[in-house]
Automatic annotation (TrEMBL):
Coiled coil: none annotated. It comes from Pseudogymnoascus verrucosus. One of its GO terms (molecular function) is iron ion binding. Heme binds at residue 452. This is Cytochrome P450. Its cofactor is heme. Keywords: Heme, Iron, Metal-binding, Monooxygenase, Oxidoreductase. CDD domains: CYP503A1-like. Pfam families: p450. PANTHER family: CYTOCHROME P450, P450, PUTATIVE (EUROFUNG)-RELATED. Belongs to the cytochrome P450 family.
Length: 514
């Protein structure tokens, strides 16, 4: 134990020293923007604050004065140049190399796994309506596991409730649901696949961050030692027979071997259409398919799980009469008007649910900095301020700089949102703008052309999941589980251990088919 404490203290002192020296070098030697970091004195006096507090403070001090600042080694852009960065071509500033710098995924997924945006925006988006029925089926099955085996717990007042730890239960459910979308129903009942996929999605972030901090020549030697590498190999082996079958008999685009739209046949056709794959060896095609499937699952499982966990936490921390009942009443009316069938058009006619999800995302986004881009032009990049920002100066970004958007500052800006720190579930109910549409005031899905391409499908999953949850369960109002603030890091994750309380809905009403 003493050696562990010494190690921890040494690691903390080393980190503090690195942060302070980096901040000094950035502001004094390079004459760069100020760095969002706790001071030596703040650490030593126990007055250091979390990353979110730092970001809000620096947003108020610098962003609102049209000046950039640094956080985590990235340039955080002020609103005066939001429009300018949207117009920059990908050849000059791009999100893909920025993401690879932030999360070293290549050793696990391959070198060309990040080109699926076009497939997601086109083929997959056009298939969402056909996916709703299998999604409903899988959500129904997944939510059955939310009630643990055994008798309920008797709480004060002689009420019987079942404990639910939302995040792990939702992670398992979203792993199954994503599996159904990716590779079909037969894999959802295969624990070797679903458990491995959930573990992959949950663990790759930490292991990628570890690789990021290594000397790059060591990465090929260290990555094979991580369990993410073993998980990828296991998933690859499990799916190999189906990929071989699809390669031997490529499906006609728009058709599916089992009649149910899944990503796997889309992905095989897509990979075969990419340069260099038509005549490639089977092993190379397999790597291309698996890398892209896992990149999709990584993007889908973790982010959707976090979003749903926050939404459920926000539901159970308010009286049912305030949000749950009005949402459910509106959903039942819309479903009845659509002959009991959910479609993307019907799901878009739920302003109360849309608003609730958006407000939850506003206060609890998946990241407090988002929409990063890396400057690829050796000459650097000059961003000119937009009209209306008096006194704003151009922002120069050197070659290799990575930019971020100050999401947490914008979402907490009292000039944009009245009582910005207060949860108002129906704040956006009267908005005419599409609920998934990113803007300069709402960035939970990113910003500009690099916004999340799968947000339309993600929202369908979230809506269907929440509607089924509300139809099947009652909940006991509790204090909202607090998000975990990971110290110096610029993110917040939902509480993963605190129980909330649910039980089967007792009222005698017609259930929503979800």
């Amino acid at each position: 134990m003493p050696s562990l404490l010494i190690y921890a203290a040494t690691a903390l002192v080393t980190y503090i020293g690195y942060v302070q020296l980096h901040a000094l070098f950035q502001t004094v030697v390079r004459k760069g923007p100020p760095v969002a970091a706790n001071s030596w004195w703040a650490y030593l006096s126990g007055k250091s604050v979390s990353g979110s507090v730092l970001l809000e403070e620096f947003y108020e001090k610098y962003s609102k004065n049209n000046e950039p600042f640094m956080a985590g080694g990235h340039y955080v852009l002020p609103p005066s140049v939001f429009a300018a960065i949207r117009k920059v071509p990908d050849s000059i500033a791009n999100s893909t190399p920025a993401n690879e710098d932030g999360l070293v995924l290549e050793p696990f997924l391959g070198h060309d796994n990040t080109d699926i945006i076009h497939l997601v925006r086109t083929t997959l988006t056009r298939s969402v309506d056909a996916m709703i029925a299998p999604l409903q089926d899988e959500i129904h099955t997944s939510l059955s596991a939310f009630l643990p085996p055994g008798p309920p717990t008797l709480l004060p007042g002689d009420e019987e409730w079942y404990p639910l730890t939302v995040h792990p239960s939702t992670l398992t459910a979203i792993g199954r649901i994503t599996t159904r979308i990716l590779v079909g129903s037969k894999y959802t009942t295969l624990p070797a696949w679903t458990d491995t996929l959930a573990g992959f999605a949950n663990g790759i972030i930490i292991q990628s961050i570890l690789l990021k901090n290594l000397w790059r020549p060591l990465v090929p030697w260290i990555a094979p030692l991580f369990n993410t590498t073993r998980r990828v190999a296991k998933l690859r082996a499990l799916i190999l027979p189906d990929v071989r079958e699809l390669l031997a008999n490529p499906p006609t685009p728009g058709t599916y071997p089992d009649g149910e739209p899944t990503v796997l046949p889309m992905m095989v056709n897509y990979v075969l259409s990419r340069p260099g794959y038509a005549e490639a060896k089977e092993s190379e095609v397999l790597t291309g398919v698996i890398g892209r499937l896992l990149d999709f699952s990584f993007a889908a499982v973790d982010t959707t799980t976090i979003t749903l966990t926050h939404c459920i936490h926000d539901l159970v921390s308010h009286p049912p009469s305030l949000y749950a009942s009005p949402i459910l009443e509106q959903a039942r009316a819309v479903l009845a008007a659509n002959d009991g069938v959910w479609t993307t058009q019907a799901l878009s006619a739920l302003p109360l649910l849309d608003s609730f999800i958006k407000e939850s995302q506003r206060l609890h986004p998946i990241g407090q900095l988002l929409s990063q881009r890396k400057v690829l032009d050796p000459k650097g990049l000059m961003l000119m301020p937009s009209e209306g920002f008096e006194g704003a100066k151009p922002v120069y970004l050197p070659y290799g700089a990575v930019t971020q958007m100050p999401l947490v500052g914008v979402h907490m800006d009292g000039g944009f949102y009245e009582d910005a720190r207060e949860f108002r579930g129906f704040r956006f109910a009267e908005d005419k703008v599409a609920r998934s549409q990113p803007s300069d005031r709402f960035m939970s899905f990113g910003h500009g052309k690099h916004a999340c391409p799968g947000r339309h499908l993600a929202l369908v999953v979230v809506k269907l999941f929440l509607l089924e949850f509300l139809e099947r369960f009652e909940f006991k109002e509790v204090e909202r589980p607090k998000d975990w603030q990971l110290g110096f890091m610029f993110n917040a994750v939902p509480d993963m251990k605190t129980n909330v309380w649910i039980r089967p809905r007792r009222e005698e009403e017609v259930e929503v088919e979800a």
